[in-house]
Amino acid sequence: MEYVYGALLLHAAGQEIDEEKLKKVLTEAGGVQADEARLKALVSSLKEINIEEVLKNAAAAPVAAAPSCSSG
Known about the structure:
This protein has 72 residues and is mostly helical. It has a single domain (2-59), classed as Arc Repressor Mutant, subunit A, CATH 1.10.10. It has 4 helices and no strands. The protein has helices at 2-12, 19-29, 36-46, 51-60. The model has no long low-confidence stretch (mean pLDDT 89).
């Protein structure tokens, strides 16, 4: 999840999401040892995604209520 959070942070800051910037966010701000393969995979997959549109749709999606627990 930290890779996705790092990408969202870059997006929110108006920065291009590339391997170098994402690695810097993860290592310097997050204290995470970045995995090069995961960096490449995420950056590659995000090139085809409109993050702003995904965030709008996620905010508009209804959230299911948690099932109630019965003690019986």
